[in-house]
Amino acid sequence: MDVVREPRQDRSRATRQRLLEAAIECLAEVGWSGSTVAVVAERAGVSRGAAQHHFPTREDLVTSAVEYVSQERLARLRELAVDLPSGPGRTQAVIELVEHMYTGPVFGAAIHLWVAASADERLRERVLVLEARAGRETHRVALELLGVDESVPGVRETVQATLDLARGLGLANLLSDDSRRRAKVLRQWARMLDASLTSGS
Amino acid sequence: MDVVREPRQDRSRATRQRLLEAAIECLAEVGWSGSTVAVVAERAGVSRGAAQHHFPTREDLVTSAVEYVSQERLARLRELAVDLPSGPGRTQAVIELVEHMYTGPVFGAAIHLWVAASADERLRERVLVLEARAGRETHRVALELLGVDESVPGVRETVQATLDLARGLGLANLLSDDSRRRAKVLRQWARMLDASLTSGS
């Protein structure tokens, strides 16, 4: 009905993107068992046939969705990082930024996928590939933003601990708003991180 | 068929316990959607009617199971703590002990429940009560084992960060054996913890 007609390729890309975003919303709200291709297609306002053309199975749709949003989040993290302060306060600003990746609906969706994969061999293999890549990239971005050198003993593990802590805090936030407690823990963590990264211990 | 007959009360308690243990196994293996009272009853070798007498709904069964094993784990943690070394090395031994609570099938079961609760209002309320209690108790045990004083600024948040980190590491371990990486992160964490708790920062 649109007067301006999109070229077919753009239309196809837009359909795909709507499906990916609807899959994330759906996963975060009703979990894996409720997120079938048909349900996601309806939410996206896309016909079931068109949805299946893009994503033949739920595994394809959901893993693509989580990968897509992970990439988007990393890109956004890099953008926001441009405005970070240098000097004192930077560490805390960095870990708050990183923590944002582990709160909100996108992390909610990822955790549903993760947990579904733990009970499903075939899905697990796909999710492991995805998570290994996302983990490496997030680690690299965190190193860059903190401005630290991984060849110094302990630095690699300290940055890993930061990401593991961020994930644990994200999990604690899943059932109820945990932001006040989280803010205090992150402040303390920033202090410990500064002490550890400057002493090189 | 047993020659020695158990008193009715003991039999009832044993049935209940078999159901709780089967619920944990079931939850860890097939997740929330597959863990109905009927499925768990069958796994436990208990009639569906008897199972429903103990636990009228799946919510009752699964939340009771997670609460039961959380209590068991805490009791076990206190037992094991008796043999912990004092002096150097104690911090690492404590956090390794704490970390054990977040790996293995019990944590797998709890996370399935947790994630199911995030998409189910009624279940969420029950799980929040449960988690608040378990969280407080785990925090208290961690304080005791580390031998630290929460009235010192920063100590409370440092201990909370330890438990959040443990949860994040547990989550990372859900899909594949992550124990080598985890051991390194925990060693580094023990060093940072010792530095932070002795400096009081």
Features:
homodimer; 201 residues; mainly alpha; elongated; HTH_TetR (chains A, B); TetR/AcrR family transcriptional regulator (chains A, B); DNA-binding (chains A, B); HTH-type_TetR-like_transc_reg (chains A, B); Homeodomain-like_sf (chains A, B)
What class do helices, strands and sheet pairing of chain A give?
Answer: mainly alpha
Fraction of helical residues of chain A: over 70%
Strand composition percent of chain A: under 5%
Q: Return the string of H and E elements of chain A.
A: HHHHHHHHH
Lay out the secondary structure:
The structure is a homodimer of 201-residue chains.
Chain A: H1 8-34, H2 37-44, H3 48-54, H4 58-81, H5 90-100, H6 105-118, H7 121-146, H8 155-172, H9 179-199
Helix pairs in contact in A: 1-2, 1-4, 1-6, 2-3, 4-6, 4-7, 5-9, 6-7, 7-8, 8-9
Structure, explained:
The structure is a homodimer of 201-residue chains. Chain A has 201 residues and is mainly alpha-helical. Chain A has a domain at 62-199. Chain A has helices spanning 8-34, 37-44, 48-54, 58-81, 90-100, 105-118, 121-146, 155-172, 179-199. The longest helix of chain A has 27 residues, at 8-34. The radius of gyration of chain A is 19 Å and the shape is elongated. In chain A, 39% of the residues are buried. The mean pLDDT of chain A is 90. Chains A and B meet through helix 1, helix 6, helix 7, helix 8 and helix 9 of A and helix 1, helix 6, helix 7, helix 8 and helix 9 of B.
